[in-house]
UniProtKB/TrEMBL annotation, chains A, B:
InterPro entries from the UniProt entry: HTH_LacI (IPR000843), Lambda_DNA-bd_dom_sf (IPR010982), Peripla_BP_I (IPR028082), SBP_2_dom (IPR025997)
Keywords: DNA-binding, Transcription, Transcription regulation
Origin: domain of life: Bacteria
Chain coiled-coil ranges: none
Chain ranges of the HTH lacI-type domain: 8-62
One Pfam family here: Peripla_BP_4
Protein's recorded name: LacI family DNA-binding transcriptional regulator
Amino acid sequence: MKQKSTSSGVKEIARRANVSIATVDRVIHNRTGVSEKTRRKIDLIIREMNYQPNILASRLASRKVFHFAILIPRVSEETDYWEAPLNGIQRATAAIKQYGINVDHYFYDLNDKKSFTRQTQIILKQKTDGVLMAPSFIEEAVHFAEECRKRNIPYVFINSDIPQQDSLCYIGPHLFQSGYLGAHLVNLGTSRKGKTLVVNISREIDNHHHLLRKEDGFRSYFKDHGSPQEIIKLDIRQTHYQAVSRKLSKTLRDFPDITAIFVTNSRVSTVASFLEKSGLENILLIGYDFLRENVRYLEKGTISFLICQQPEEQGYQGTMALYDHLVLGTQIEKVHFMPIDIITKENYEFYQTAK
Amino acid sequence: MKQKSTSSGVKEIARRANVSIATVDRVIHNRTGVSEKTRRKIDLIIREMNYQPNILASRLASRKVFHFAILIPRVSEETDYWEAPLNGIQRATAAIKQYGINVDHYFYDLNDKKSFTRQTQIILKQKTDGVLMAPSFIEEAVHFAEECRKRNIPYVFINSDIPQQDSLCYIGPHLFQSGYLGAHLVNLGTSRKGKTLVVNISREIDNHHHLLRKEDGFRSYFKDHGSPQEIIKLDIRQTHYQAVSRKLSKTLRDFPDITAIFVTNSRVSTVASFLEKSGLENILLIGYDFLRENVRYLEKGTISFLICQQPEEQGYQGTMALYDHLVLGTQIEKVHFMPIDIITKENYEFYQTAK
DNA sequence: CTGAAAGCGCTTACAG
DNA sequence: CTGAAAGCGCTTACAG
């Protein structure tokens, strides 16, 4: 069952090829300074033996430390969403730091493009072997991705994707599908007679195409199930309560038969607050993300469903993808869509309890 | 930022304590043969330095191979549920086999208690450092757990728990809560006028107390929300289609106002098949587990919701718990309840897509 | 283009 | 009770 240690490893390869282990090492790592003939001979033996390098020994002997740069939004009062990915990243860090991985964090402000660019510039000055980023600002992220590519630094996208950017991989939600699911929940939770309101709340509705992709998915469901005319749309470009409240009041006055509201992002708690204050709690409310505020309204019943996409796992798996690629040389899946979780009053306690 | 390598590690401890590294090693691993005085001195220095052993070096130098025994049901035609935990176990195995972990699988037949006992006996004859098991047969599992305890072999439960058995940990569903959630979904998906049918389908209803715990949760929801009298209960002790069909026919004839059926385990597809053939597809059907057959009916709309508990993660995390405990010496959480996922037609594609 | 030797930070016999 | 030395399977200068 178990091979004798003498019959595997670089030593054995060297013995069979009649060279030194240093030369074997050069071939294994595709380094220069080996004659074609020798290289071929060694390659052949490696294949024959189905040689698997011992990562323990490799990492121990190598003085090399890998530097990962994490570029994500700062956790703020306004949104504690990013706490979860950060936790996942820290969990991954704990698992791999033993193996000579250094993880540096660069936080930017979601309300300030400049801060994103500033952080990318710092990263590019640093010695960096891999990048994990949430590409919140498309243009800026594309530019940064180009710089990484030039330097041969692999980068992973989490939370939202920018396709065609040759990233190592994308780990995050399938936005269209999550909107589609949202519509399904509306359909389940209301009689089919009322109208449905879709609400985008964001200072950057036009830059944040991911909101629109969710809305598309939402509408598609109704198209597929035959009542697209019942959807009212409301864009709110100021995120504070007053603005949201004013806009909602008006819309609900104009359309008194609205029975469900779908908020395309985590700002659903603002809407919940409005409904509560207005005594409109029989309107079905659905939104995104496992934020403390949102969960509070879920508990109360003001919010019926939160759609979540395992942000903690996104951070964990994104970091591990860099590790697997850079350290273990594993092949990485280009796209990994997260499960679309439905959180309710009854199951929220068991969401994100992972250590 | 980075400490010079000379100022950390056993060598440095040895230097400071004025002893050899062999003695330091003895203290680190709590081995005998060190004077109290020396031990105390070294312990102090270790604490002062906040010394963290280098696992890479430790695993490399140590000739020790850890043997994990995995005791779970064989994947059968009847239920492919156990494919998922097995995948998780294999993913964990791939991640840790580099570090001298040997993982052996022992499969038993869910319809055959004896096969469980037989496998436990084989395991006990083997050199085993840790056990991961699904304790499907309580009595037999308790007995095996005792034997492990005698031998100082830690064991992890997945999928269902046996409390008070001093396991290293339990990783799996909170059964009561998942039943509670099932009732919530019934409530959402039906008008409150109809009756609800709870169906237990198992040859071993009385041994499999976990079915009953789900039923309890289910009933509690209605109690908390005020209509317990509307629940009809049906136990079916033969699992083949004919038996299920016969029983269901009769019950639905007796209670024509049943509008929802809650099946307490993965055999919900049998009920779905019956409803389909009987043209009763407007009855809301809810059950458990992401099996191919179940998903087929989810797609068709015959089943509205499947409740799932990340079986793949149970396998992965269970295996890693053994690793963390035995190899890294990490403190392990006693109980880790899995998230309770709700799977629908719209989100099933994104469930269990993890590699 | 190639090899001998030292070393990564531990563990393991073995000798005293 | 303690220590010197070899070795785990690699990588890394360095010398030729």
